[in-house]
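Hi R.,

Here's the chain you asked about this morning:
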Amino acid sequence: MLTRKQHELLMFINERLKETGVAPSFDEMKEALNLRSKSGIHRLITALEERGFIRRLAHRARALEVLKLPDAAAPSLARGRGFEPEVIEGGGAPASLAPAPANENDALPVSVMGRIAAGTPIEALQEESHQVSVPLAMLSNGEHYALEVKGDSMIEAGILDGDTVIIQRCDTANNGEIVVALVDGYEATLKRLRRKGDSIALEAANPAYETRIFGPDRVKVQGRLVGLMRRY
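And here is the predicted structure, written out as tokens:
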């Protein structure tokens, strides 16, 4: 079941793909749905993706693919592609999308929540300091935030002092992922997470720093690294 706005956006994207082969920009979606901000469009797109109606194509601006339509609308999608549909609940034929050129509007504001230590952990910051504009292709599902890197312990992972890292908020991570780890409830650090038996190791990517090992109750994952932004 889709909300009214989700349904409106899905049909708008589908009609634009049928007409031009290119997905609408976030500004066009915002105007079509009479929304005040592009963050509302991002939430709608995420909801449609999570429900399996659309798919974002990685590393392409404005690259959306319609995977299915609500059952009542599925035949129109099929007719637009020149074949008869198989009627399967939740189904529908995908609409293909050619790569579109990058568009500076295909970015979203992400809150910068302070500085994160790539070195000795520093006190965690929880308040937004400002926002940065992040390309849509860098974002995945869910909520994101940004942190400014302080220190050089992750230089061999390509993360330098002064970089801005984009973090997907989560409380679990796979072994070997770079995460924001909260140690003892007040120290935040950016490190590679390794599970070793009942312990958690936070590994630096710089031989000058030692791996720190903690009991599982001392470390909480607050997000995983999904992108990095740098100014030269």
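One quick note: Confidence is low (pLDDT under 50) at residues 74-104.

Cheers,
M.
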